[in-house]
Amino acid sequence: MEAVGVLGLVVVVLAWVFFWVWDSSEGMKSQEQVGLLGSGSRTLLVIAHPDDEAMFFAPTVLGLARLRHQVFLLCFSAGNYYNQGEIRKKELVQSCDVLGIPPSRVAIIDNRAMMPCLS
Fold first, then answer.
1. Taking Cα atoms as reference points, which of 116, 118, 98 lies closest to residue 106?
2. In 3-state terms, what secondary structure has residue 75?
3. With the C-alpha atoms ordered 104, 69, 93, 99, is the resulting torsion angle positive or negative?
4. 108-119 per-position pLDDT tens digit
5. Could you tell me the CA-to-CA distances from 74 to 33, 52, 103 in Å, in that order?
6. What would the DSSP string read from start to end of 32-72?
């Protein structure tokens, strides 16, 4: 009967050691992943229209900013459908600034030849 108690204690100790080692390795894996996507990494976000950064990608941009990425944004339209291109450009730059993308990292390509539906 005493042997069963000792055996049970050994199993509990071995299980504890196993989970402690496993938890430590998971912690190291997470640190490695943060190292791969950490400070100094650069990300280019390519969008079709102004406001796509806020409507579709805001959580991603904020998450990358939290990881201290340098996020750059390239927009392939000025949003000039109703002759509001200049207003939409300003709104895009302001939106990016709120999301943590400085104006110096925002580029807008306003080329009608790239828009077959508008040519």
1. 98
2. strand
3. negative
4. 998 877 766 555
5. 26, 11, 11
6. HHHHHTSTT-EEEEEESSTTHHHHTSHHHHHHHHHTT-EEE
